[in-house]
Task: structure prediction
Amino acid sequence: MGKVLDALDTNLSDIVTRQPVFFVATAPSGGDGHVNVSPKGGTGSFAVIDPTTVAYLDLTGSGVETIAHLRDNGRITVMFCTFEGGPLIVRLYGRGEAVRPGDSRFDDLRRRFPADVPGVRSIIVVAVDRVATSCGYGVPLMAYEGDRPALRAWAERKGPDGVAAYQADRNAVSIDGLPGLTGSPAG
Result:
């Protein structure tokens, strides 16, 4: 049976940090923009800061929808499914922001994640105001084989300067024309 909570408890914190993949949903203000759902993951890429604050590593990608939508209105939902063991879906609703390199909070947050991950674009921090669980009976059982090496290899080949150039070229605006990675690294 599903539950609605104001915060993550110890059991749910343990469950969400163990999942190798999670999904992030955001949308721009108004009715004309695109709703975005992105898969995220990688070993150690999600952290529970406290019962109402979570964060994840945002790696350089082909789009910048999450950052653009958070800059626009801050709304975000993070969803986890258990694919092994007992069935469960956990949704974290809240307000998020992208903390970029150069922000005074970045280095402290960065220490919560594996140090050897290249291509980190930001750390998405979410102030959680609603936690909802549901049964997950419709979620298939699947076995985790490991993290895909392609994104790491791409970022290592590009190097920090190449990743920065890619971000400037491909992550400046969202598909709806909202600002993404524009201006200084912190903003």
About this structure: The domain at 3-170 is CATH 2.30.110.10 (Pnp Oxidase; Chain A). The mean pLDDT is 95.
